[in-house]
Amino acid sequence: MSDATANALSKQEEKERQQRLKYYSASQWTLIWWRFRRHKAAMVAGVILGVMALLGIFAEFVAPYGPTTRDTQYIDGAPQMPKFCDQNGCSARPFIHGVSTKRDPVTLRAISVPDPEKRVYVEFFVQGERTKVLGFIPTNIHLFGLSDPDAKLHLWGTDDLGRDVFSRTMYATRTSLSIGVIGVLISFVLALAIGGVAGYAGGMTDNVIQRVTEVVRVVPIIPLYMGLAAAMPKEWSTTQVYFAMTLILGLFGWPTLARRIRSQLLSIRGEDYVVAARLAGARPGRIIGQHMLPSFTSFIIVDLVISFPYMILSETALSFVGLGLRPPTVSWGVLLQQAQSVRVIEQTPWLFIPALFVVVAVLAFTVIGDGLRDAADPYSEAK
Amino acid sequence: MLRFTLERLVGMVITMALVSVMVFIIMEIPPGDYADRYAFRKFSGTGVSVTEADVQAIREDLGLDKPMVLRYFDWIGNIVLRGDFGQAFAFETSVVKVIGDKVWLTLGILLTTLLLTYAISVPVGIYAAVKRGSSLDYGLTVFSYLGLALPNFLLALILLYFANKWFGADIGGLFSPQYQDAPWSLGKLWDLIKHLWLPAVVLAWSAVAYQIQTMRATMSDELNRLSVTAARARGVPEGKLLLKYPARLAINPIVSTIGFDVNRIFSELPIVAAVLGLTELGELLLKAYLDLDMYVAGAILLLLTFIIVFMNFVSDLLLAWLDPRIKLGA
């Protein structure tokens, strides 16, 4: 063997050794991140959810109009796709055709007809309605709009009151995602308390808590939610209803996670380090929080991510049948209230666009959950 | 086996007792009581003036002025001893009359859905596990994801749309108009069967998606066992082998989650029923909630939960019969 090949070999070995060192010295979370990164679908889903969250957070900026702004010129109007070419030639800037009002020759009702001779250009960062981004930054700049301040761009059409579906969907994204987040957090706290007590105390306490958990698990969940939602007084403000809804969703979302926490706690209750902590005089809260939970935090995160879709689907279903959030609040479910019949599919199918958001969000959370589940235990053999 | 059955029965009674407490609390949450709402309805419907004394009279008549604990025992006692679920607003009759034969319709929908779910998910799950990694397997995985993500009311609307488009006929509801109020006959039963497939497909959708994945996962594990290799080495034909060893074991998780599937189906039922116009318990429950007709709502919630608990019991027994290892641990 010549010196050169030996040298190359040892370089190769050195590189491998470095890699192994990096692997062995990486923290658990770094390893989880490395494993998660390999899951391509989950990464894509993460990006999609990130974009969706940004759209919701900055809804005032992204949406050209307010959620209840009406355009009486364009009621039940079809989506207007910006284009670059028409019969009069092409333009480098996207434009839509202006709308002019005419009388219907038969019914004499005022109807809006696109005027192919009139071009209105789409521009970015235009001035429009005054709003407050994030609720406190006053601005009148919107992400996009039309060059002519009198004309309005309805990317995804309008509903029967002439409200812009695109703008409403952006605001709804914020409501629906935030309800999911708060609901999951509430059920997490409950699960931690209930599962923690059951798993740490064991014995009789555990038995009683298991019975109660069983009761909550056995009652069909959406009829249960509906019962609580139906009890909300009609005169409550939209804010009160919003918080009541998060509370209702969170209140019964805990059993699965509580079970996980309980069984994990039960299995490590007798470990030496737990006994040592107890002998050292640590209080139960500290033993659970500081010594026991960290050993399965990653699994808890997986369960939290997986419970998101249920929250979102429940909220959508409840609002859809009129037992959840109420207009003027906009959420995906409230928007879909307008799309309850086959007639809507035939005549104004664009009212179903919010449903796409529901499907995409639920899919994204499910895929991320799968990716996280694979990554949650980075010390297991890679598949 | 007898001891096991008795234990499960006792557990079932305890669970139902606790459930009834929870249902009663839900019935009590809306502001005001039955007498208030009754008076309000009477007043707003007809303009008949109702005095505070009248309301008080109704209240005393129904025993609504007693403390909550006593009212609970009145309510549950009447249900258990006399099968009396209280008063309904609608037509001012008893809850039992309002519910009527809707229980059987609901059970019909439930059983059709369950049969459809297992008839599809078990063979497809086995097939997916055998053909692991094939394009069909990937297709099924994508379908499963979609099945869990698509809200069922949306699926119902889509199916309704295409059914209208392709078959032209009005496909919603449980009966054709001429049979709606007709007494039961063979013709009505056949009409019901013709209408059942749509709600069954919608309700089975997510359960199928979920159970295919379960079946595929457990089947894949079982296929790797030495018993399978040994049987193959003995020359057992592949089809017989699949059914006799891995499929026989992989069916257990499906059996043990029957109650879970029933729970999910009932959870989705009210909304699907509202979209498809099914006149059964789910739709009635939704209506009762919207009208705050709480005796009806409570009765339905209790009935649905009872069916779930009972199906859990059935699934426990089935599992103990299918898998003798379970009995000892119970």
Short description:
The complex is a heterodimer of chains A (383) and B (330). With 383 residues, chain A is an alpha+beta fold.
Would you mind describing this structure in some detail?
The complex is a heterodimer of chains A (383) and B (330). Chain A has 383 residues and is an alpha+beta fold. Helix content of chain A is 58%, strand content 14%. Chain A folds into two domains: 99 residues, no CATH class; 208 residues, MetI-like fold, CATH 1.10.3720.10. Chain A has a four-stranded antiparallel β-sheet with strand order 1-2-3-4. In chain A, helix 3 crosses helix 5 and helix 3 crosses helix 15. In chain A, 35% of the residues are buried. Chain B has a domain of 186 residues: MetI-like (MetI-like fold, Orthogonal Bundle). The longest helix of chain B is centred in the middle third of the chain and has 38 residues. Chain B is 79% helix and 0% strand. In chain B, helix 2 packs across helix 3 and helix 6 runs parallel beside helix 9. The interface between A and B is large, with 43 and 49 residues.
